[in-house]
Design a protein that fits this description.
The complex is a heterodimer of chains A (about 180) and B (about 625).
Chain A: E1 9-12, H1 22-31, E2 41-50, E3 53-61, H2 70-74, E4 80-82, E5 88-90, H3 100-104, E6 111-113, E7 118-120, H4 126-130, H5 136-140, E8 146-149, H6 151-170, H7 174-177
Antiparallel strand pairs in A: 1-8, 2-3, 4-5, 6-7
Chain B: E1 19-24, E2 33-39, E3 42-48, H1 61-70, E4 80-82, E5 88-90, H2 94-112, E6 117-121, H3 127-140, E7 145-147, E8 169-173, H4 177-180, H5 182-193, E9 197-202, H6 207-211, E10 214-217, H7 223-238, H8 249-257, H9 263-267, H10 271-283, E11 287-291, H11 303-310, E12 320-323, H12 344-350, E13 355-359, E14 378-383, H13 388-392, E15 395-398, E16 407-410, E17 416-419, H14 432-441, H15 460-470, H16 479-483, E18 524-528, H17 543-549, E19 553-556, H18 558-564, E20 571-576, E21 579-587, E22 595-598, E23 606-611, H19 616-627
Parallel strand pairs in B: 6-7, 6-13, 8-9, 8-11, 9-10, 11-12, 13-14, 14-15, 18-22, 19-21
Antiparallel strand pairs in B: 1-2, 2-3, 4-5, 4-15, 16-17, 18-23, 19-22, 20-21, 20-23
Chain lengths: ~180, ~625
């Protein structure tokens, strides 16, 4: 995989997600969407297991903004585009709502906005990002599940989080001994 | 324990707007800071307030989606009166509808006395509706004002939730913080990352249990009994530490004497498990115990402050007791001595409730006083949405939502914040205080409600500054200071720091009685599985959260469902001795095989579930066959 130093990364630290759906709603408000579609979607997995040994997790999912996006190649109207910074978005002025992109996408990401008859898909909050802001979903996430920024910044955050975990293991619990 | 500086956050909103209002979200009691962008009297963007010490710019789904409620086409904007043909007929004029209401109330009082009136409040009506109701009821001569969340809990968190990061252990008892207060749960996760053990006890496998380090599955409503049992074991393990309880030999002896026989059957927790958790709590101090709101109206609730004091947890940062939804101080809204509300059972026994005034959806389904309203001739609804209470109402008055009026907001932490009005309410809608002032005027009590006159709507600022000054617990607070407070700091109302009255142990744990027979007719136990902290269902009217709330979901364990021939998505009926509920089956292992969970349910009620197209007896015989 190629890492583009100038492209932003959206990292999903799914174990932190508690399924509050704040990101889904933030996205709909930012883009003025109706109840469906959901460009940002949290999938609940579980509870699975037996008896008292249960597990449940949440997986926030959104567009991968592929390096070789099938949706862009498939779009007959030239609406679906990939920007230099990596964001794949649909230009709604040009979109004719034919949903060819939805068929082409291997992840089922583009969905039809029935209120407008156009495609609704994560546009990486390009208007916000252009102003140096975080995407709406990242901004409102209460748990720190969504991390956004330049590769250097995201990597630094992961390092800090992992270092904290390691430090926890190697530090004797001072409260226990007290 | 570890200092882990968070990433610097950019500001929230992308757009420059006409007007930005800084206010407080009142969807739940976390009290997140909001920055609301307004254009032409309409909300165009909602972002979290980056400066807010609890929410820090984050928001949950409800904190954004409430905006949709303000301009919903279904929104009630006119008073309506049920006509002779049974349909609600809207009327333009509040005055006409109020005159009629006053007339009917007067007649009911003459015929049946003042105690024939019952007032039900919920979060949708707002704090000012509840306070106004208390004041009106006193003038009326009754004390029958109830809240859908139950009576106000006693006690208050000793420290704000941001202190949890100093904890050694967080013990959540029947508190599904992750689902009901997501923004507060971020502090649980932060504490966990800094080394705190998170232990959660609940009947249902909730999101909170999924995120906890260790879980205890208990019988519903037995949280306080779990507290008693753990206290006994903790005392046996380590004795007491705090000076508050030293020397009180009788108190300690009461726990030594308490028998744990039958505890396994009552709590659903094995003795080994109990011992394990008692040891865990002893060795990982300081512990913060976070208890759910429902526990506060059950017996032995005082065990939690007692345990925190006995172990000396409260003396440390990150330790103590944190009851949820207990941040509202005891406000003195009545003149002179106020009579406390009677027990609901007492009112039910009398059976003479003829008129009910209620806010939001407080008569929803199996709600505690919903059943009392059944025999009432006059049912008055004060709310914003056409919910199931509205469907039953004989009169309805359209309510302003919290974003459409000024008001004080008290958070879980006990913080006092000014919730500024964001947008004007639709023309026909009034605040709760306006409703009561308007009604009081018709009985000649305008002097007792001086904040609204015939010409002007209520001045909430004047009302709350009177209230703050009049209530002993908030007497030092000035409204102007609250309004102008630095958004980065929390203004917490002063609570007396005194040693709690020690709660003594009973001779033995007594099983929770739910007043109804069990056995073959109703082999399942119903469970209230609310994923939403609001009683009522406003969020099910908002398109953005409609799919998330699933008010009609009936959770059934897959094993039980296969016995009954129920499949995912089937229309089902829950039969209980208290009444029926209908919904859609949602197979889930979150509930145990002998339980059925519904957001509309009441915990502990015996029940049976069957498919809509199947007779009740058929389900019973299917179960009987499986048992034999």
């Amino acid at each position: 995989m190629k890492i583009h130093a100038k492209r932003n990364i959206l990292l999903v630290d799914a174990p932190r997600c508690i399924g509050c759906f704040g990101c889904e709603t933030a996205c709909k408000m930012e883009h003025g969407l109706p109840a469906e579609p959901r460009p940002m979607r949290v999938i609940q997995v579980g509870p699975t297991g037996e008896g008292d040994e249960l597990a449940m997790s949440f997986q926030p999912t959104t567009c991968c903004h592929c390096d070789w996006p099938a949706c862009v190649l498939a779009c007959p109207a030239g609406a679906m585009q990939k920007r230099a910074d990596g964001i794949v978005f649909s230009d709604l002025e040009k979109c004719i709502g034919c949903q060819t992109c939805a068929v082409a996408c291997p992840f089922g990401v583009p969905q039809l906005n029935t209120a407008t008859g156009k495609i609704a898909k994560c546009d990486g909050c390009r208007d916000r990002v252009d102003q140096g802001l975080w995407p709406a979903c990242v901004q409102k996430c209460p748990t720190g599940t969504l991390i956004f920024g330049s590769p250097a910044r995201v990597v630094q955050e992961i390092r800090a989080r992992e270092a904290l975990k390691v430090a926890m293991v190697f530090t004797p619990d001072e409260r226990e001994s007290a | 324990m570890f200092d882990h500086p968070p990433m610097t956050r950019p500001p929230g909103s992308r757009l420059e707007r006409d007007k930005q209002v800084r206010t407080v979200c009142q969807e739940c009691s976390v009290g997140c800071g909001l920055l609301v962008a307004v254009e032409d009297g309409r909300v165009v963007d909602v972002q979290g307030d980056e400066a807010h010490p609890v929410s820090g710019g984050t928001l949950c789904a409800r904190g954004t989606a409430f905006v949709q409620g303000l301009s919903l086409p279904e929104r009630l904007t006119q008073p309506a009166i049920r006509g002779p043909k049974g349909a609600l007929q809207p009327t333009e004029d509040w005055k006409v509808a109020m005159d009629l209401l006053a007339e009917r109330l007067r007649k009911t009082k003459e015929k049946h006395g003042p105690d024939s009136l019952l007032i039900g409040c919920d979060l949708e009506g707002g704090l000012d509706f509840h306070l106004g109701a208390l004041r009106f009821a006193q003038l009326w001569g009754t004390s029958q004002v109830f809240h859908a969340l139950g009576p106000a809990p006693e006690g208050r968190p000793a420290a704000p939730c941001s202190d949890w990061v100093n904890s050694g252990c967080l013990f959540l008892v029947e508190a599904d913080l992750a689902a009901t207060h997501p923004v507060a749960f971020r502090w649980v996760q932060e504490a966990k990352r800094r080394g705190a053990q998170v232990v959660a006890a609940d009947a249902c496998f909730t999101s909170t249990l999924a995120k906890a380090d260790q879980t205890i599955r208990i019988e519903p409503g037995t949280g306080n009994l779990l507290g008693l049992a753990l206290t006994k074991l903790i005392l046996a393990e380590s004795g007491q530490d705090a000076s508050a309880v030293k020397g009180d030999a009788a108190w300690k002896a009461s726990f030594e004497k308490m028998s744990l026989e039958g505890a396994e059957a009552i709590l659903g927790v094995s003795p080994e498990q109990l011992q394990h958790f008692a040891r865990l709590l002893v060795k990982s101090g300081p512990v913060t115990v976070i208890t759910g709101r429902a526990l506060s109206s059950l017996e032995h609730h005082a065990i939690w402050p007692t345990l925190a004091a006995a172990k000396g947890w409260s003396d440390f940062k990150g330790g103590g007791w944190y009851p949820l939804d207990a941040g509202v101080p005891p406000l003195r809204v009545q003149d002179g001595e106020a009579k406390p509300a009677p027990a609901l059972a007492e009112v039910k026994e009398r059976g003479d409730v003829k008129a009910v005034i209620c806010s939001g959806n407080s008569l929803d389904h199996l709600s505690p006083f919903g059943r009392l309203a059944k025999k009432a001739d006059l049912l008055v609804h004060f709310g914003a949405f056409p919910n199931s209470t509205w469907e039953r109402a004989s009169m309805t008055f359209p309510a302003a939502l919290w974003a459409e009026r000024d008001g004080l907001a008290f958070s879980n932490d006990g913080a006092v914040q000014w919730g500024a009005k964001v947008v004007p309410s639709p023309a026909g809608c009034r605040s709760g205080l306006d409703f009561w002032a308007e009604l009081a005027r018709r009985f000649g009590w305008e002097k007792q409600f001086p904040w609204a006159t015939e010409e002007t709507l209520a001045d909430h600022g004047a009302f709350y500054s009177w209230l703050l000054a009049q209530s002993p617990s908030t007497a030092g607070l000035k409204l102007d200071a609250v309004r102008d407070a630095d958004p980065r700091s929390q203004m917490i109302w002063p609570a007396e720091k005194s040693a709690p009255a020690l709660h003594r142990a009973p001779a033995a744990l007594a099983p929770i009685s739910n007043g109804a027979g069990k056995g073959e007719d109703y082999p399942f136990a119903l469970l209230a599985a609310r994923t939403d902290c609001r009683p009522g269902d406003a969020s099910s009217f908002w398109p953005w959260t409609q799919g998330q709330v699933k008010e009609d979901a009936v959770q059934i364990h897959p094993d039980a469902a296969s016995l009954l021939g129920i499949q995912n998505g089937d229309e089902v009926q829950i039969a209980t001795p208290r009444g029926d509920l209908s919904g859609r089956a949602c197979l889930s292992r979150a509930v145990q095989p002998w339980r059925i969970a519904s957001p509309r349910g009441v915990s502990g009620v015996p029940a049976i579930v069957h498919r809509k197209d199947q007779a009740l007896d058929e389900a019973r015989s299917l179960l009987k066959r499986a048992n034999s």
